[in-house]
Amino acid sequence: MPKFNFLATMIGTVLGLGVVAAMPNAHAASLIPNQEGEIKTNLGCLDPSQCIDTTSLGYTVTSLDFDGAGGYGPSRLFVDDRATSNTYLGSGLQVSFGTRDAGTNTGVNEYWLRPVAITESGNLPESGQLEVGRFLFEFTKVMSEITLDFFDVEDIGTAVLLINNSPVGSSTLSAGKNNGIQTLTFYNVKSFEVQLGNAYSSKFPKYGDGVNLGIKGKAVPEAGTTLGLGALAVAGMFGLRQRKKSVLAG
Length: 250
Known about the structure:
Layout lengths: L1 H20 L7 E2 L6 E3 L11 E2 L6 E6 L11 E5 L5 E5 L2 E5 L14 E5 L16 E19 L7 E5 L2 E2 L13 E16 L15 E8 L3 H27 L1
Parallel strand pairs: 2-3
Antiparallel strand pairs: 1-13, 2-5, 4-9, 5-8, 6-7, 9-12, 9-13, 10-11, 10-12
């Protein structure tokens, strides 16, 4: 009976240590690349030398047409820090970001995902400064939590449309203050589809409402890794127990 109780105690310890082993993943980390450039999507990149492949960060991005036939085509997506000016050339387009935007100005030395709306005829509204687009983010493994920060939502139109290919209720953001940040958090996410900004804004009929995106997330701990770390910790406890016995015996 004592042996059985000890075994049950150690099993409980392993499970408890499994939870502890998962703790390093408890804090969400930014999923925005820490460099400026164009995110590689299904559109490729304007300049291959300035292309950022996000697969190393655990996700891919697909750009989607957000208004059907006519009007706008799929948007391009960039990582931008307002502290520097940047120009991207390719496919007959020139996208330029200055240190000051006509309407959407993120903090200096902050990296944000910045969409660039392009008409189906290949024109760049506001010289590439209309931050509107629809994108599908797909993760290589389930994210236990993702937090989306929406910068400068000033009109209705920005929304999370799908989570894991299923419609999301009440995820349309309300009109907020200029250069304000609104946040949505979701759990157990393998993919999400998001609409950024509104190209047909009644509040800003000349230019539309541009919105930038920030993403933080944490992955679901791998079961094998968690159990393995717990087992190693228990093995360490056994070793400590044996050393104590040796000392007592001495």
